[in-house]
Amino acid sequence: MIQIIIYLLIIWILLGLLGFTIRRLHDTDHTGWWYWISVIPFGYLFLLYFMVLPTVEKPVRWGSYLFKEKT
Q1: In angstroms, rounded to a whole number, what is the distance separating the alpha carbons of residues 66 and 28?
Q2: Of 17, 21, 16, 23, whose CA–CA distance to 63 is shortest?
Q3: 25: which residues sit within 8 A by CB, 6+ positions away?
Q4: b or e along 1-27 (b: 16 or more beta carbons within 10 Å of the residue's beta carbon)?
């Protein structure tokens, strides 16, 4: 029973990290599909580079949820 709870917690944490990573990629104006580069050897280094880029100061392709557009 304890193992099932631990597995569910691990899946919950991994899904949360996946969501965070995709949101961060969107903040840097990259598509969430770039997450899959972490599957290839040393691809996580490219993903890490994308994650440390600064947030873009313009509305991104996925909506302007970061900054309010001035009208």
Answers
A1: 11
A2: 23
A3: 31, 32, 34, 35, 50, 51
A4: eeeeeeeeeeeeeeeeeeeebbebbbb
Q: What are phi and psi of 58, to 5 degrees?
A: -140, 160
> Strand, helix or coil at 63?
strand
pLDDT tens-digit series, residues 15-53: 999 999 988 888 888 888 888 888 899 988 988 898 888
> What Rg value do the Cα atoms of the chain yield, rounded?
16
